[in-house]
Amino acid sequence: MISASGVNKYFGDLHVLKEIDFEVPRGQVVVVLGPSGSGKSTLCRAINRLEPINSGEIQVDGKPLPSEGKALAALRADVGMVFQQFNLFAHKTIVDNVTLAPQKVRKVSSSEARKTAMELLERVGIANQAEKYPAQLSGGQQQRAAIARALAMRPKVMLFDEPTSALDPEMVQEVLDTMTGLADEGMTMLVVTHEMGFARRAAHRVVFMSDGEIVEDSTPEDFFSAPKSERAKDFLGKIL
Ligand code: ADP
Ligand code: MG
């Protein structure tokens, strides 16, 4: 569903993605781990083409990333993205946040969009918050609304960039449970997270990045019990 080959990205002289090769097959959950500054967010943003790359190729569902126009809008619709900051529209209700893009981009009717939105809000457990504004919800509820909003576009793949890092500790689990539910339903997911419990339980593969490189790409069992590189051992030693 996602494939990257020989991807390089520079910010000025800073080489932040170095010959990145990796794949996310349909239906797999791949967790990306690595220290701060290792290039995890840049990789996510490159897949959605929020950041152009300098060389190499990224494909989503077998097609190279378009650089502009309608094709780029279609790519963005196929790739759902959930960030650390929920980025909900503050002046719109939760249900309106969820119906907006499907109506604008997918040309879904307002009644159809609303029906789907309510189903999705039900699925993430916040249907009773539909008519409220984002500021009236807890952080965990807002992040679940952001997930529902991304799902409303019926994406082929979901990217999560540290979706629980901005949450109070007691709200982390409800968001992870929502993500685990999606994984169980077979959604293709690329998840940047420091939540090792989620990685162990939900990931088919763990990709460990350090200093712009993919240093390890293995099963969670292998990665956590027998990391091969010094960099991974050092990282795990600091966070576990
Ligand atoms: P991570 O998500 O793993 O913490 P990032 O992908 O955010 O890492 O950043 C990788 C490197 O790129 C860091 O050194 C960061 O400072 C740098 N970087 C990220 N975004 C920009 C930008 N827009 N301009 C310049 N440097 C950036
Ligand atoms: Mg980041």
Automatic annotation (TrEMBL):
Enzyme Commission number(s): 7.4.2.1
PROSITE patterns named among the record's database cross-references: ABC_TRANSPORTER_1 (PS00211), ABC_TRANSPORTER_2 (PS50893)
Source species, domain of life: Bacteria
Subcellular location: Cell membrane
Catalytic reaction equation(s): a polar amino acid(out) + ATP + H2O = a polar amino acid(in) + ADP + phosphate + H(+)
InterPro entries: AAA+_ATPase, ABC_ATPase_HisP-typ, ABC_transporter-like_ATP-bd, ABC_transporter-like_CS, MetN_ABC_transporter-like, P-loop_NTPase
Xref: Pfam families: ABC_tran (PF00005)
Gene3D superfamilies: P-loop containing nucleotide triphosphate hydrolases
Annotated ABC transporter domain residues: 2-236
Membrane topology: Peripheral membrane protein
GO cellular component, one term: plasma membrane
Keywords linked to the UniProt accession: Amino-acid transport, ATP-binding, Cell membrane, Membrane, Nucleotide-binding, Transport
SUPFAM superfamilies: P-loop containing nucleoside triphosphate hydrolases (SSF52540)
MF GO annotations: ATP binding; ATP hydrolysis activity; ATPase-coupled polar amino acid-transporter activity
Family (UniProt): Belongs to the ABC transporter superfamily.
Record-given protein name: ABC-type polar-amino-acid transporter
